Amino acid sequence: SQQGEEDPQALSIQEGENATMNCSYKTSINNLQWYRQNSGRGLVHLILIRSNEREKHSGRLRVTLDTSKKSSSLLITASRAADTASYFCLPGAQKLVFGQGTRLTINP
Amino acid sequence: NAGVTQTPKFQVLKTGQSMTLQCAQDMNHEYMSWYRQDPGMGLRLIHYSVGAGITDQGEVPNGYNVSRSTTEDFPLRLLSAAPSQTSVYFCASSYNMGEKLFFGSGTQLSVL
Questions:
Q1: In angstroms, what CA-CA distances link A91 with A45, A79, A97?
Q2: Measuring CA to CA, which residue among A40, A39, A38, A63 is closest to residue A53?
């Protein structure tokens, strides 16, 4: 299976600061997705980046993908209290396996 | 569109009982999957299906059965519930495997 590994496991920042989370994976992928989960609810899709893309933006989100290093990063700019959640990456491989996620806490 | 609908939302079972968790989607998605999430943990893939009549095992398939007789439905069966199966179960679907997943709201299962 192809599991993404998120780093750090937990991140706590002040509102208004930027938050960066990283994801590493082990084999070749077609794409990589990022998801958010609020308080045990179902995951919500944030962004998908394909293997031939290096960077993608969506609102305050910026995702990068480095296929040579088998890694991706998710940057949330100008964080808000509502961004408090767990974030998961999902490498696009034969089996869609999530990692443990990064728990992000935004402090007011 | 209702999206992905899971029923029930909550369920309490006794050890050894059987039950079926229902999952239905109305988006004509080919790919459907089941995950479980234990407290403070990530999601673990139980079973998945790339289309009607096709199913495959995920990371933690033991103790669970699935079938996919229609595009819309992907039920998860627990044949003999065990306390280790206490968890929150999520169903997810996408147009094709590897594309954006849509999640249901989850079923919280407790096995006593």
A1: 13, 25, 8
A2: A63
pLDDT tens track for B30-43 = 999 999 999 888 89
Using one digit for the tens of pLDDT, what is the confidence trace for A44-65? 999 999 999 999 999 999 999 9
Q: Do A42 and B35 touch (CB under 8 A)?
A: no
In this structure, are residues B58 and B87 in contact, taking their beta carbons and an 8 Å threshold? no
Q: Whole-angstrom distance between the N-terminal and C-terminal Cα of chain B?
A: 36
Of B42, B58, B102, which is closest to A99 when you measure between CB atoms?
Answer: B42
Transcribe B29-61 into DSSP letters.
Answer: -SEEEEEEE-TT--EEEEEEEEETTEEEE-S--
Chain A residues with CB-CB distance to B59 below 8 A: 1, 95, 97
Residue type, B97: M
- The nearest alpha carbon in chain A to B87 belongs to A40
Alpha carbon distance B21, A94 (integer Å)? 25
